[in-house]
Amino acid sequence: MKVSIIGTGYVGLTTGVCLGFLGHKVTCIDTDEKKIALLRSGKTPIYEPFLTELMAAAQPNLQFCTEYAGAVKNADVIFIAVGTPPSPDGSPDLRYLSEAARGIGKHYDGDFLVVVNKSTVPIGSGNWVGSLVRESFEQQHGHKANGHFSVASNPEFLREGSALHDSLYPDRVVIGSDNNRALEVLYSLYRPILDQTFAPPPYLPRPEGVGAVPLISTDLASAELIKYAANAFLATKISYINEIGQLAEKVGADIAQVAKGIGLDARIGTRFLQAGIGWGGSCFGKDTSALVATAREYSLGMPIVEAAREVNRRQRDRVVEKLLGELKILKGRTIGLLGLAFKPNTDDLREAPAIDIARKLLERGCKVKVHDPVALERFEREYPDLAVVCCESPEDTADDVDALVLVTEWQEYRELNWEVIASRMRTPLILDGRNALDRSRLERFGFRYLGIAG
Ligand code: UGA
Question: Which fold has domain 315-451?
Answer without folding.
Answer: Rossmann fold (3.40.50)
